[in-house]
Amino acid sequence: MGAGHDHHHGAVANAAHRHAGRLWAAFALLATLMVVEAVAALQTGSLALLSDAGHMFTDVLGIGMALAAVAATRRAAADPQRTFGLYRLEVLAALANAVLLSGVAVYVLVEAVRRFGDPVEVPAGPMLVVAVLGLLANVVAFALLRPGAKESINLRGAYLEVLGDLLGSLGVIAAALLIAVTDWWWADPLVAVGIGLFILPRTWRLGRAAVRILVQAAPEHLQVTAVHDRLAAVPGVAEVHDLHVWTLTSGMEVASAHLTMAPDAEVGAVLTAARTALREDFRIEHATLQIEPGASPGACGTVEW
C-alpha cells in the first residue's frame, strides 16, 4: 500500500471540515432571507417574490445537505467498518443539489413561457426592496462559500446555487425597475428566461462531475495511459497491469496497480519509486500497489470483471 495514506485521508477531511463555519453562516443568512421573501410574497401576492423564495429554499436545502454530509463524514471517520469514511456523501449531496437546481431552472422557464401569454402585474416597490435585500445576502453568502468551492464538489454545489440566486436577485431588481418606470410586465418573464438559461448548463456540469465520481471513472484531468507509462518506466518494473485510477471524493484520487518486477529488482526500491512517481507526477497520494515476481507466472490471478 502506498505511503502517506493516513496523512492524506486526514488532509481531505480537514479540507471539508474547515469550511463548516462558513457554511453555517451562509445557511443562517439565507434561511432568514428566505422567510422574509416568503412573507413579503404572501402579503403582496407577488409570484416573482414567491418564486425567488422557492429558489432561495433550494439554496438553504443545498447548504443544509452540505453541512449534513460534512457532519456524517466526521462521525464516520472513527468507524473501522467504513474504511474510506463517508466521503461519497459529499458527492451524493452535490448530485442532489444539481438535480434541485435543474428542477428550479426548468420550472422558471416553463413559468416564464406561460407569463408571456398572460403577464402578471407585479407590485414593483416591495419587489425591488426585497430583491435588494436578497442581493446583499447573496453577495455575503457568495463570499463565504467561494474559497471552499475550489476544494470540494459539495461546496461547489452550494456555491453555484448562491451564484444563481445572486444573479436572480439582479434580474429581479432590473425587472422591478423596468416595471416601475414603464409598466412593461414582460420584463419579469424575460429576466426569468435569462436566469434559467444561465443556471442549467452549470448545474449539468456539476451533475456530470458527480456522476463521474460515483461510477468510478478516471479523473478527467488524468490520462490512465500516461499513468501506466509512467509506472512502466520505474526502474525495476517489467510490466504494469490491472491499473485502476478513480476519485473517492473532491481532491482525493486513488490508484491501484499490479507491478511485475524485473528479475534483479528490489521490492522496496520499486515501491518507493512508484509511489514517488504517482505523487509527484499525478498528485495521487493513496495508491495500492501489488508487487509480483517476474519469475513466477500466474502469481496474479485472473480477474473476471
From TrEMBL:
Lineage of origin: Bacteria, Bacillati, Actinomycetota, Actinomycetes, Micromonosporales
Alphabetical list of PANTHER family matching this protein: CATION EFFLUX PROTEIN/ ZINC TRANSPORTER (PTHR11562), RE54080P-RELATED (PTHR11562:SF17)
Designated name of the protein: Cobalt-zinc-cadmium efflux system protein
Keywords: Ion transport, Membrane, Transmembrane, Transmembrane helix, Transport
Keyword Ion transport on entry: yes
InterPro entries given in the database record: Cation_efflux, Cation_efflux_CTD, Cation_efflux_CTD_sf, Cation_efflux_TM, Cation_efflux_TMD_sf, CDF/SLC30A
Superkingdom of source: Bacteria
GO MF assignments: zinc ion transmembrane transporter activity
Domain named Cation efflux protein cytoplasmic: residues: 220-293
Biological source species: Micromonospora nigra
GO CC terms in record: plasma membrane
Subcellular location(s) of the protein: Membrane
Residues annotated as domain Cation efflux protein transmembrane: 23-215
Signal peptide: none
